[in-house]
Amino acid sequence: MAATDALINAPEFTVTELSSALRRTVEDAYGHVRLRGEITGFRGAHASGHCYFALKDDGAKIEAVIWKGTHYRMRFKPQEGLEVIATGKLTTYPGSSKYQIVIEALEPAGIGALMALMEERKKKLAAEGLFSEARKQLLPWLPEVIGVVTSPTGAVIRDILHRLEDRFPRRVLVWPVRVQGEGSAEQVANAIRGFNALPEGGRIPRPDLLIVARGGGSLEDLWSFNEEIVVRAAADSMIPLISAVGHETDVTLIDFAADKRAPTPTAAAEMAVPVRSELLLEVASLARRSMLCWQRGAEMRRNELRAAARALPGLSELLAIPRQRLDSAAAALPRGLKANTHAHFRHFASLGARLTMRVLRAQLAHARQRLTGSGERLTHSTGSLLRNRNDRFSGLAIRLKASKLSNAQAQRQAIAANRERVLRLTERARRALATSTQRLAARVAHSGQLLNALSYRGVLARGFALVRDETGYPLHAAAEVGSGTRMSIEFADGRVAVTSDEGRTAPTSSSPKPAQREARPATPRRIAKPVDQGSLF
To answer: CA 420 to CA 412: how far, in whole Å?
Structure first.
């Protein structure tokens, strides 16, 4: 019986109160924790951007969640089956009565996990063809502008600039980025895409070659260059790209996607440009060899020309026969001119004999007949053309008239429909205005009734009075009234001005002793409400 009474006297909790108490207990007792376990149930980010999965080991499993903003800022993203160390806050989820960890940071559990993740990502990107040799471009032999993606404060950029100055000075554009830590992968990828987005012939020259460089470091330090966003940006680059990340023994995934891999940043500068002094020596050597070849060729052709000149006949021998033929043609020219003139005279005489008046009249008559026939045909054609045009214009006039009638009918129907719509809207507006006016009138009446119910004049009508001092401030106790104090007493039917005398009735023993009136401040007193609204205070 006692146990039953104890259970009956135990406090009752609602489900929400109990869940809230358990949540406060868990959050206060543990707070931030670091958990090591394997990711399970991860299917990518939810449509809302949040990630939901679980961490497990050999003996237990705990639910985990990563909010959208935290997941976006994470350098290391969660993947199914990966062993990780999660840092976050332990809490509960009342909707399913379970506890969970809200992850704020995520890191792989050791170098072995990073290597396994790198190999898995390498296989995935290789299967997509990002590392194919067919995608790689040839490096320009002597680029005019070189773009460098690296940290502006490290020794790498100084080594590259110094090496380029020694070999062949070129114009260098530096895109400053973070080469490790949170957000570094996004900055490197944006820099590569930014260089590719520069227009040809713009204010900022488009580089002919890109160098992505970073000094040596651990696998964790170089992990930004293993991210998919960086590898895909390097593979999509239309500008030839040299990867110079780490030392010769360091290997990152960007090395496989780049067009050329350099073991060190200095080696990348050596790959980018040739040695200027060697080029000058080679050019001078080629110039000397070209001059010698030209001199030998000119001397050879000079000897051949001399040999050919000795084998050619003299000028007089070449012109002897043509000169004789010219003299013979000049001697026969007068006789030929006379014979040609005589032949043309006979031909013109025969033609003139055939041009008589009869022939000319016949030709004129034939031409006149042809002209008359052409005029008749022209008149007939003109009449036919005019008739066709008149018929066409008549048809167009009929169509225009019908179109005008149909358009006018359509406009009348539209005007009638709009008139009906305006009438309907006017009637709706009238009804709405009447309804709104009634609602506002009812609200005003209700407010007036409420004001009358709360007014102190109802109390005065029942026989009470309101005492104010000469400033209009209400008096609540007799202790506030001194000798000779001027007051006004308000009744239900008006006000009466009075002055207190020295006599004062002692308070009864049953009523509490009025507290001594505090000294009024020098500041203006509170203004009483207007008489027409009424107040009990």
So the answer is: 12
